[in-house]
Amino acid sequence: MAEKEQTQQAYPLAPTNGYARSDAEAATADSDELRRQKRKKLLVYIAAFVVFQTAIIVLFSLTVMKVKTPKFRVRSASFTTTFDVQPTDPSFSLNMNAQFGVKNTNFGPYKYDSNTVYFYYNDIQVGSAAVPKSKANFLSTKRFNVAMDLSSANLTSVNTNLASDLNSGVLPLTSKSRLSGKVELMLIFKKKKSVDMSCTMDVRIATRELENVKCK
């Protein structure tokens, strides 16, 4: 009898129902589901981060890293000293102080070399202006003034047209030039860019003013 009791104590009876086992399995299943949800959230966060970074890179490439061609133009001019215009004996000799502008819309400075701007009347050169080496800072316009002499000394073959223009009170001129330089981005990348100037303008003889400046 004692042996039977000892045997029963050594080998306790199993639970009469499966509740204990079911609770353990449910807890394990809940833990696995929680881990799966955490992994899903992590994957969603990683995917969102990748999409965000890709969008930033694309936007950066299309804006900051995109190199645009600067613009080089005649902005204005004044005539302060010599202003000799002879409509009857068609000729002119002008001292013009012109203001030029180099507009840079890039996110880095545009460094350009020295150059020359040529002025023409009826496609014949009547003057020139030396452009010094310099730079236009990012998202800004570099303005500078250059004094020059404009003369009709080379216009012997077009005196008829010149007389008509001077008598009308307007001297039409054009300017052309080509500026060469480099746009520097992030202090590392350098992109060569050349700028062509092609401007038309009128000198109003009565008021000694430069008018109707149009540049392409």
Automatic annotation (TrEMBL):
Top-level division of the source organism's lineage: Eukaryota
Keyword set, alphabetical order: Membrane, Transmembrane, Transmembrane helix
Keyword Membrane annotated: yes
Annotated transmembrane regions: 42-65
Location of region: Disordered: 1-31
The keyword tRNA processing is annotated on this UniProt entry: no
Protein name per Swiss-Prot or TrEMBL: Late embryogenesis abundant protein LEA-2 subgroup domain-containing protein
Source organism: Rhododendron williamsianum
